[in-house]
Each structure stands twice: as structure tokens, then as C-alpha cells.
Write a structure and sequence with these properties.
CATH architecture of chain A: Alpha-Beta Barrel
Number of strands of chain A: 9
Radius of gyration of chain A: 17 Å
Bound molecules: iron/sulfur cluster
Number of strands of chain B: 9
Strand order of the largest sheet of chain B: 2-1-3-8-9
Structural class of chain A: alpha/beta
Number of helices of chain B: 8
CATH superfamily of chain A: Fe-S hydro-lyase, tartrate dehydratase beta-type, catalytic domain
Helix content of chain B: 25-40%
Order of helices and strands of chain B: HHHEHEEHEHEHHEEEE
Largest interface: A-B, 47 and 49 residues
Number of helices of chain A: 6
Distance between the termini of chain B: 29 Å
Order of helices and strands of chain A: EHEHEEEHEHEHEEH
Radius of gyration of chain B: 19 Å
Oligomer: heterodimer
Strand content of chain B: 15-25%
Largest sheet of chain A: 5 strands, mixed, barrel
Chain lengths: ~200, ~290
């Protein structure tokens, strides 16, 4: 296990060096995107209108997060910046990685086979942020740079946020086909057979 | 009377604020202990972040988690407490104020139109469980229940022939199915008996117990320990990324049941166990019992 402090944008080398179990802190720019951002961006891509996606996501860090925000003195401020459940994005994430070239996805609860495959193929990682650890994440926010697609509602909008030492996040899917969540789950499912015998 | 109303609105608002920034000491201590005994580096990093998050939230008054939960209240109303009518409105007003001022995330959504009410008040929300008890005090327990950990609740309507073994298996199965979803470490509440509704209500109530209390029934105390040990032996660990502590505690409540049924309700509560308890006197003065 190693610890890394990475700066955005991330290169393919940045993420290929990471292995499951490594700990990563991110500084630079994080873009939030959950259900609706995925849907809208992929719809634009399907129509050949990728340039209408307001942020260039090449090498970007995409964060599954619906922040708590409030306008203070005319500027957006973030009051909650913890991760949301990534499983909801499983059906679209592989395509999203392929279309937009994001290098890291941060979320909670893990993702599954298709995303793991896409990460291996295109060179990306899944970073698990401890679920609910929102106060620490909020403190790492330096400022809100921009927000797009606010018509989707504040949790679903695309927030472009500058952070410093955002983390700890743990590499739970690396770009070599390893998936720590699935490994732990599979072991638990084996172990449970033994536990049944002791009930 | 309007003074009492005002005191109650402010009191409930204070309870919600306390819970947004603090978890009770028993939960905090259990998390610290889990951190100390852990040797898996990923688990240790998760628990370290959780413990630090609690400190930051409490000292800097930033909500612990961005999902500030569904406001849920257990009200024990003394039959001689001077104010009875309008308690729901009082709780609703406190909720609106808390949503604006803390701020809380608006989490009350119409299930047909998906419209968000914007202030955490809606049909049957805040969720309130009422009980009338002897005495002249009003005791309120508040729980801010996150969606992630509510989603892994389970109800098993077992065949009574399955007995104790069936109950144990239901708890283990619910946990394996929950996996990383409820942001473990979690508190596992189990409600046995009653009907379907009662089993679920008891399960949620069980998650409100102090983690360091001991079930007064020695057999149940033993069962709680046994289940906790078995759950943690699966190695799911914090956040489902492996380690020693998936559950901080298992707590069991029960009711009598119909001869043909064996309801088992399971309620999972994430480590961000934001709960507060306060007692109000007839003059509106308030004593906070939890968090200390
Ligand atoms: S399950 Fe709990 S800790 Fe996790 S995101 Fe929901 S409220 Fe927060």
C-alpha cells in the first residue's frame, strides 16, 4: 500500500501506477456528476454534440456527489461535499469513461464488472471516499469555480470545484482489473456458508 | 401557551442542530475503539477519516454528512403535559427553521411527481411516532436517518418453524446483502415479533439504544453479542472495503406475535448516527439527554 498526492488533470501514467488499497489525496479541480449529468452528457455525445458538454473532462476527476450548497453574498458556498452511492451510475459509467476520458471517479460503495473492464481498457481508477465523511471533504474545498446545468437542481448540477488535499480516498478499482469491493464481497459470501453452520 | 409553543419550536430546532454536528459519545467511542483495534491499512484509513470528520463537524459546525437525513421523531407525550394539540406543527416549524439555518439538505420528495418540498416537510414527513405515557413531561428522540442506510432495511416474514436459527440467518443475510451500501460501520437494529409494521418500528427503535447498554434479558444480550461477532467475522469491514468492524453493535427489541407469523425487521443505521434526546418540562424548559 502506498500513499499518493495527485494534482489534476491526471495523466494515464498517474493512474496506471495506482493499485487497489493505495491511498490518494487529490488537489486541483474536481467535477461533480451524478445520475443526470451522466444522462445528459451521454445524450449529447450520442448526437455528436460532445462540444456542448460545458467542461473538458479529459484527465478529469469526476465525483459522484450531490453537494449541499447555499449562495452567500452572491457566491456559491459548499456546506456538504460527501460522496453518493456510485452503483446507480454503473449502467452508464463505462460509456462515460470511453466518451470523455475521465481518469478518476470518486464515489462510495463501489462499482461493478463493466466499469472495472472500462477502467482497465482506457486507464482510469475508482477512488472510494469514506461514505458520510462530508465535513472533512467540505474543508478541503477551496472554492466553487463554476456550476453548469443548474436546471437539473443543485444536487444534480455539474459543480466545478477547486480542492486541496481532498481525501483520503482509497483505490478500490485500479486500471489492472482489480476490484477491492468485489473481492471483499466474494470472500464474505464464502465465509457466510461457514457461519450458517454455526447458527 | 404561545410561550410554551415557542420554547418547544426552539428546543426541537436545537435538538436537530445538535444532531447535525455531533454523534453521541457512545457511538464516537465505539468508532475510536474500532480504529484502535484495526490493522488493515484501508480500514484504518476509513476509520481515521470518520473519527476526524466527527471532530471537524463538531468544532467547525459543518454537517457530519451531506445527507442530513429524513427527520424522524419518537415522541413520548406525558398525559399531563400542558400542550397536546399542535405538536406536529411545532415539529414541522422547527424542521423548516433547521433546514434553512443549519442548512439541511431538503429530503422530502413527492413519490409520484418527484417534486421536492424544499423544506423537509411533506405528507407524513417529518416521520413522527407517537406514544402517550404517564406524567407531565414530553420526551422527544430525534433521528436524522440517511437514505443510504435506510435503503438496506429488511423485513422477513419467516415461517415460525424456522425459530431462532431463522432469525439469526435473516440478520446475517440482511447484512451480506447490505454490503458497503449503508456506509459501515453500522448499528444493526433487529425487531422480532409483532406484525410487519411493529417489527420494523422496533428494529429502528433498537438502533436508538446506547451502544454500551446491555440488554436486560441475558439471553438477548448473549444473542446480540453472538450476532455482532458473526457479522464482523465476515470481514466486510468499514465501508465494505475489508477489515474487522462492519457493525458497531447489534440491538434487539421484541414483541409478542401471531402464532402463524415470525416477523423479523432489520434496520441498519450508518456510523453517522445523528440522534438526540431531550425532555421538556411543562414550563417549556429543556434537558438534553443525548448527545451529552
Ligand atoms: S448512509 Fe449515512 S453516512 Fe452514508 S451517506 Fe447516507 S447518511 Fe451519510
Amino acid at each position: 500500500m502506498a500513499e499518493y498526492r495527485l494534482k489534476t488533470p491526471l495523466s494515464e501514467e498517474d493512474v496506471r501506477q495506482l493499485k487497489v488499497g493505495d491511498i490518494v489525496y487529490i488537489s486541483g479541480i474536481i467535477v461533480t456528476g451524478r445520475d443526470q449529468v451522466h444522462r445528459r452528457a451521454l445524450e449529447l455525445a450520442a448526437k455528436g454534440e460532445k462540444d456542448k458538454v460545458p467542461v473538458n473532462l479529459e484527465g478529469a476527476v469526476l465525483y459522484h456527489c450531490g453537494p449541499i450548497v447555499k449562495k452567500v453574498d452572491g457566491e456559491w458556498k459548499i456546506f456538504g461535499f460527501g460522496p453518493t452511492t456510485s452503483a446507480r451510475m454503473e449502467s452508464v459509467e463505462a460509456d462515460f469513461i470511453k466518451e470523455f476520458g475521465v481518469r478518476a471517479i470518486i464515489g462510495k460503495g463501489g462499482m461493478f464488472e463493466r466499469t472495472t473492464q472500462a477502467m482497465k481498457e482506457y486507464g482510469a481508477v475508482y477512488l472510494a471516499h469514506p461514505g458520510g465523511v462530508s465535513a472533512v471533504a467540505t474543508k478541503s474545498v477551496k472554492r466553487v469555480i463554476d456550476v453548469h446545468w443548474l436546471d437539473l437542481g443543485t444536487p444534480e448540477a455539474m459543480w466545478v470545484v477547486e480542492v486541496e488535499n481532498f481525501g483520503p480516498t482509497m483505490v478500490a478499482i485500479d486500471s489492472h482489473g482489480n476490484n477491492l469491493f468485489l473481492d471483499v464481497m466474494n470472500k464474505a459470501k464464502e465465509k457466510v456458508q461457514e457461519v450458517y453452520k454455526t447458527l | 401557551m404561545s410561550d410554551l409553543r415557542e420554547s418547544l419550536i426552539n428546543g426541537v430546532f436545537e435538538m436537530m442542530k445538535l444532531a447535525a454536528f455531533n454523534v453521541p459519545d457512545d457511538v464516537k467511542n465505539a468508532l475510536k475503539r474500532a480504529y484502535e483495534i484495526e490493522d488493515n491499512p484501508v480500514a484504518k484509513a476509513n476509520l481515521g477519516a470518520i473519527v476526524r470528520n466527527l471532530e471537524v463537524a463538531s468544532t467547525e459546525r459543518i454537517p457530519i454528512c451531506q445527507d442530513t437525513g429524513t427527520p424522524t421523531f419518537f415522541v413520548e407525550l406525558g398525559e399531563d403535559f400542558p400542550l397536546k394539540a399542535g405538536l406536529r406543527e411545532i415539529i414541522e416549524q422547527a424542521t423548516v427553521k433547521a433546514t434553512q439555518e443549519i442548512p439541511l439538505r431538503p429530503n422530502a420528495v413527492n413519490p409520484w411527481t418527484y417534486e421536492n418540498s424544499g423544506n423537509n416537510v411533506g405528507r407524513f414527513v417529518p416521520i413522527i411516532h407517537w406514544e402517550v405515557v404517564p406524567g407531565d413531561e414530553l420526551k422527544i428522540t430525534y433521528l436524522a436517518k440517511g437514505g443510504g442506510s435506510e435503503n438496506t432495511s429488511k423485513l422477513y416474514m419467516l415461517s415460525p418453524v424456522l425459530g431462532l436459527k431463522g432469525i439469526k440467518k435473516a440478520v446475517i443475510d440482511a447484512v451480506v446483502e447490505a454490503g458497503p451500501k449503508p456506509c459501515p460501520p453500522i448499528i444493526v437494529g433487529v425487531g422480532v415479533g409483532g406484525g410487519a409494521d411493529m417489527a420494523m418500528k422496533l428494529a429502528k427503535k433498537a438502533t436508538l439504544r446506547r451502544l454500551d447498554d446491555k440488554n436486560p434479558d441475558p439471553k438477548l444480550a448473549e444473542l446480540e453479542e453472538e450476532l455482532l461477532h458473526k457479522i464482523n467475522s465476515l470481514g466486510l469491514g468499514p465501508m465494505g472495503l475489508g477489515g474487522k468492524t462492519y457493525a458497531l453493535a447489534v440491538k434487539i427489541e421484541w414483541a409478542h406475535k401471531h402464532p402463524a407469523s415470525l416477523p423479523v425487521g432489520i434496520s441498519t443505521l450508518c456510523w453517522a448516527a445523528r440522534k438526540s434526546i431531550a425532555v421538556f418540562k411543562p414550563d417549556g424548559s429543556m434537558k438534553v439527554l443525548m448527545p451529552p
